[in-house]
Design a protein that fits this description.
The chain has 320 residues and is mainly alpha-helical. It contains twelve helices and five strands. The structure holds heme C (2 copies).
């Protein structure tokens, strides 16, 4: 184009220039719509990445029985009973195909269903509440692209009074407040990315923190380790305490562990963490794993005496 215009000394050349301009506006139109297509494709692929980072896949896919991706039906054993994850594919009957984006946002960040029911915090909306709107949109785009599954939702098998769903409103009033992620301007970009990955998407504290009698995370002991109330197994302290935490691990030890499951002593992660690594942290970019390590290293060390003689946990499968 530019070359043509610069050649247009004569009227003819100018005409040619105008024609040329007219012709290029047509492809311009298609460029705009292919831009849109590119944006949509990039939203789907970003959503896929976020789905791994937040490990929706592990809970919403019944891998044990070769269930369809995100078709639900996975058993999650807790001290309150067994929960079965729902089908979150876009099937209009069996999944969430009739939902709007707002319905999705309210489920994931507020724990409220389109009918106004409250979800059990076994669905970790308590951490996901911080997910940015842009990331929710990408997650939503990806969910639309997953093949629909007609897997039927199963009812939870939980004990009374926990089976009484309306009581969750009270639980949420006491233990939950929806809150968007806020970065800390005094920290680096990498630290903030790590903070977001650990606290919001990766919901690491949901497992690595002790819970009170009502099943709520004890925020002041965040990341200091916990004991499964179902199996009595220990979920390690991941604060940098030298004796009871991961204070002797350097950044590379952490990133290597999150990528491969190998501990610095050559042992391998077992139980539910093996699943977290397989479905989630091994899919992250090296930069993101590095950000997680920066964030974990920056936590205040919490001394937790019950983790000094840390035994091996190999069979925490399905229990947390
Ligand atoms: C630790 C397991 C776990 C993880 C991780 C998890 N979910 Fe869930 N999710 C559940 C369970 C269990 C329920 C049902 C809760 C209830 O019945 O109160 C649920 C419910 C839902 C619902 C409501 C479905 C319906 O039919 O009402 C949606 C939507 C959902 N999850 C999406 C997600 C997304 C998106 C992610 C990742 C960002 C995710 N979940 C991660 C366990 C999980
Ligand atoms: C669903 C529960 C669960 C979630 C979520 C989870 N972890 Fe773990 N994690 C465990 C368990 C259980 C172990 C112990 C595994 C073993 O001993 O083989 C563990 C072990 C670890 C260890 C090794 C510590 C040591 O001293 O051996 C690190 C580091 C770790 N997790 C980091 C993370 C990070 C970072 C996240 C979030 C991205 C995370 N975990 C999310 C359950 C979980």
């Amino acid at each position: 184009m530019g070359a043509v215009i610069s050649l247009s000394h004569s009227v003819n050349f100018q005409l040619l220039g105008v024609l040329c301009f007219l012709f290029t506006t047509v492809p311009d139109g298609t460029v705009a719509s292919s831009d849109e297509a590119n944006r949509a494709a990039s939203s789907v692929s970003k959503g896929r990445y976020l789905l791994h980072a937040s490990n929706c896949i592990s809970c919403h896919t019944d891998f044990k029985n070769s269930g369809p991706l995100l078709g639900g039906g996975r058993a999650i054993v807790t001290e309150f009973g067994t929960f079965f994850s729902p089908n979150i594919t876009s099937d209009p009957v069996y999944g969430i195909g009739k939902w709007t984006f707002k319905d999705f946002e309210s489920a994931v960040t507020k724990g409220v269903s389109p009918q106004g029911h409250h979800y059990y915090p076994v669905f970790p909306y308590t951490s996901y509440t911080g997910i940015t709107t842009a990331d929710l949109r990408d997650l939503w785009s990806y969910l639309q692209s997953v093949p629909q599954s007609s897997a039927l939702n199963r009812s939870h098998q939980i004990r009374f009074p926990f089976s009484f769903r309306p009581a969750l409103l009270l639980w949420k009033k006491i233990f939950f407040s929806p809150m968007k992620f806020q970065s800390n301007p005094e920290e680096s970009e990498d630290w903030n990315r790590g903070f977001y990955l650990v606290a919001t998407l990766g919901h690491c504290r949901e497992c690595h923190t002790p819970r009170n009698l009502f099943g709520a995370v004890k925020t002041k002991d965040a990341y200091s380790g916990a004991k499964s109330k179902v199996t009595d197994e220990k979920i390690p302290n991941i604060t940098p305490d030298l004796e009871s935490g991961i204070g002797t691990w350097n950044k590379e030890d952490i990133t290597w562990f999150l990528e491969t499951g190998f501990l610095p002593d050559g042992d391998v992660a077992g139980g539910i963490m093996a699943e977290v690594i397989e479905q989630s942290t091994s899919f992250l970019t090296p930069n993101d794993r590095n950000s997680i390590a920066i964030f974990l290293n920056s936590l205040s060390p919490v001394h937790n005496p019950s983790f000094i003689e840390q035994s091996n946990i190999d069979s925490a499968e399905e229990n947390w």
